[in-house]
Each structure stands twice: as C-alpha cells, then as structure tokens.
Amino acid sequence: MKTQRQNLNDDNADIDNASIVAAFLGQSTATNPKDHRSGYIAVVGKPNVGKSTLVNALIGHKVAIVSPKPQTTRRRILGILTHPDAQVLFVDTPGVHELRHSLNKVMMREVDQALADSDAILFVADVSHSPTDDDRNVAKRILAAKRPIVLALNKADTVDPRFLVQNVAAYEALVTKAPADPPPYMLTSAVRGDNLEKLLDMVLAVTPLGPPYYPPDQYTDQTERMIVSELIREQAIRNLSHEIPHAIAVLVDEFDERAGGAAYIAATLYVERDSQKGILIGGGGQMLKRIGAAARKNIEAELGRSVFLELWVKVREQWRTNSRTVNEFLAIENNK
Fold first, then answer.
1. Is the domain covering 224-330 a CATH 3.40.50.300 domain?
2. Strand order of the sheet with strand 77-83?
3. pLDDT at residue 103, as a whole number
4. Residues with Cβ < 8 Å from 72, sequence gap 6 or more?
5. What residues does CATH 3.30.300.20 cover in the chain?
6. 3-state class (DSSP) for residue 249
7. What are the residue ranges of CATH 3.40.50.300 in the chain?
8. What predicted TM-score, i.e. pTM, was given to this entire model?
9. What three-state secondary structure class fits 92?
10. Mean pLDDT value across residues 158-164
11. 75-112 pLDDT, tens per residue?
12. N or C terminus: which one in the chain shows less Cβ crowding within 10 Å?
C-alpha cells in the first residue's frame, strides 16, 4: 500500500518530492506546507471493539461495514482523512483472533501486513471490560511492530465507573514499552463521537512529515464493486444468525450503467452448505428479498443513483478452508 511513499533525505528533496506528488494529483504546492503530515495508521484490536465504527467516525464517511457480530471485517480497508495540513491514512483491519480456517489465516496476514506497512498504530480496546487473552495477543503483535502507539479506549459510554481506572491502567500496561514511556491514550465512544478530535490530535502527533498520497476528495481506495459487495454482505450479516454470516461471501458479477444514470448490479452470495442456502433464501425467498432491499437502499445512498439489484445464492463447499477461493472472494493478491 506504500507505492506512493517517498524517501525524503533532506529539505530540498522534501520540497521536490512534494511538488512532484502535488503535480501528479493536480494540486498546487502552495496547499501543501513544508510541515504537512501524512502516513499510514494501522487500526488494530480484537474482534468487536469498534474499530470499523471508529474509522468511519474519524473519516466522516462509511468506508467499512459494521455489525454487532465479530469478524465482520475480513481485509485491510483504507480510510483517507484529508486536512489542509495533513492526510491520515487509516488502515482498518480484521479483529485479531485464533486461526481456524484458511480465511482466518488470510485475515491475520492482513493484520500483520498492515502493521508492517504502518507509520504508527492505533490500538483499539473495549474499556468497558478488562483485558482478555485476545487483547494480550494483540498487544504482542503491536509491540513486535516497533511503531509509535496511540491507545483508543473505546466504548467509554458503556463502562462501569467503578472499574474505569483499573481497566485504563491494565490496557495502558499492555503496550507500555518502558515504565517512563506509556503510550498516549484517549477514552472514546465511536458511536456517540466522544473525544474523537482529541484522539485525532494524538494520531497526528505520531504521523510523520510528508506530502499527501491521494486527492483531497478521495476517502477510500476501494472500487465501487468492492463497496457494493461489502454493503450486501453487511445486510446478510445483520439479518442472519449463528454460523451463517461467517460462511457468506459476496461477489459482484455484473455492474452496468443503464439509461438515465441508473445502475444494474447482479451479485452472488456464496455459502458452504445447502442448508445454509435454504436459510439465506428463506421461505418464498423472503429473507433474500429483505437482504436485497436493505442493501439496495444503502448502495443507492453510496452511489448517489438508482440501482436495480439482483441477488443469487450458490454453494461453494468449505470455501473458507481453500486459500485460493478465499483470496478470490476477498480480492486479495499474493496471499498463497
């Protein structure tokens, strides 16, 4: 993800490279001061701590789908926040969890790659609970990356005040490299928007100097097809229960422009067993219709035009255990 990163060796190189990048993006160098900051911030934590909700709130745009169910995010998702003096590239990642299938292994490789490519790390934890073994596993990965750390203690709106101080201290201890050098932390609520500006200031403080990598009006690097497939999967996750949401993958088969600016989209939802297919379709096709109606509404809001959405359901047996199929479904290259 760092193909546009420049190695700036001195002040003159800094100015020249900024000019080159600005010209490539069609920008004026006057809008990019010498103290402009830009960098990749890996957003890491265990499942269901609110990483995607936090990224969406910081960006001010929905770049990642969210649901109450863990492991909703399956790959790295870039959210781009551009200010006049900074461009912060938040890399949302899957929740760190144990390896069960090829899918889980690919998801954890996504986390490790995000950490390796990052300039700094935003460690997101659920402060309403004390740290678990999963949190400690996350902390080990973060410390091994040897990057600046900012700690976002999320879900502060749900914490029992009696346990707040001890929970904060416990999370802080997980990623403190030296007793005299604890990481900065902020109590946040991604849902309510509490302290997000203060958290952003902390992130900017550890973001390196550099030119912007993306145009100022771009908020993600995902294609429309990728966004559409995720919005469909989001509604499947929200409307189904138990193991079925984890067994669903969505591929967009057709994406055509129609007269009047409308879009025709055909997509296939893949499951692993015939029994899951029946539940996904529902009696008289009602479940699939419900998912499609909700997804279409969100897709139209995202694309800003009318959408005709057609959904199909197919079985790809045990696809989560096949690394080639996992990579195909998640559109990830070079994971073997």
1. no
2. 77-83, 86-92, 37-44, 120-126, 149-154, 185-187
3. 92
4. 52, 65, 66, 234, 237
5. 224-330
6. strand
7. 13-20+36-205
8. 0.88
9. strand
10. 96
11. 999 999 999 999 999 999 999 988 778 999 999 999 99
12. C
